[in-house]
Design brief:
Helix content is 21%, strand content 35%. The chain is α+β, with helices and mostly antiparallel strands. The strands form four sheets. The protein has a seven-stranded mixed barrel with strand order 6-13-10-11-8-7-14.
Length: 266
């Protein structure tokens, strides 16, 4: 069933041009679906012309508004109207399936053994669960960084974050914090347990691969992701393809339909 929304959306203005709308308190796939439904509703609303961009999160939607056009009272009224219509609306949003080759353990995932112990699982079973399909709930914090959850919650792992965050995390790191997976797109501080590393980039501001022709970020909210385990030889071969610009990402089209309190994946 859909995550229960707040009685009324919580609105937080950041100056005249930015507005955060909080719809849910609980974080899950349903909250993301609700946020994406509100995004679609506002794109068709009376204030659509004053919206420069919308950024969906786990439970929130950030509006970037043209302050020269947007009237705060009209914006808030449109949001209230859209939010009241969201619960009953059927939507279908894009949900691609991407398979990303990943090296687990060793120097690529120095915290894999800790995560296995924390979940009482052998290493092989831990890697197996990490390969279960993920759902990208938001892209934030760093450019192109995706925060994900397991589509099948029964396959989820959990682990505490670092007590003291690292000052740097290698780009491509697959991190686990709580029951959320983060895919680190660039070198950055971080506190998630490092279980593996992607063999391919997910962010290219200066694109050399065809997948980044239209956008510097590979992933988007709603994507489903499989972090497929590969060995060092396969990783080395992929690195050569990335370097010469010939690597082709495994991306399958797909969608998610939300209707009558049910999710249908295609």
């Amino acid at each position: 069933m859909l995550a229960p929304p707040r009685d009324t959306p919580q609105l937080t203005w950041c100056g005249e041009g930015y507005l955060t709308i909080r719809l849910f308190e609980q974080v899950d796939i349903w909250s993301v679906a609700g946020v994406l439904r509100l995004e679609q509703q506002l794109a068709e609303s009376a204030i659509a012309g004053s919206i420069i961009a919308m950024v969906p999160g786990w439970t929130t939607l950030l509006l970037w508004l043209d302050a020269n056009v947007a009237e705060p009272d009209a914006v808030e009224a449109a949001i209230a109207e859209a939010a009241s219509a969201v619960a009953a609306r059927e939507i279908e949003f894009e949900s691609r399936v991407l398979t990303l080759p990943t090296v687990y353990g060793g120097d690529s995932g120095p915290d894999l053994a800790f995560v296995a112990d924390a979940n009482g699982l052998p290493m092989a079973d831990t890697v197996g669960r990490l390969q279960a399909m993920q759902f990208a709930g938001m892209v934030s914090f760093s450019p192109g960084m995706a925060n994900c959850m397991w589509v099948d919650g029964s396959r989820a792992l959990t682990a505490p974050k670092y007590e003291s965050p690292r000052t740097t995390t290698p780009p491509g790191t697959v991190g686990l914090g709580g029951s959320s997976i983060s895919l680190y797109s660039v070198a950055s501080p971080g506190g998630f347990q490092m279980v593996g590393r992607l063999a391919v980039p997910i962010y290219q501001p200066r694109p050399t691969l065809p997948a980044f022709t239209d956008s510097p970020t590979l992933l988007q909210p709603g994507d489903r992701i499989v972090l497929e385990a590969i060995g060092p030889d396969a990783a080395a071969a992929i690195a050569e393809e990335v370097a010469n610009g010939s690597y082709a990402y495994a991306i399958e089209p797909g969608s998610c339909r939300v209707a009558d309190g049910e999710l249908t994946w295609t």
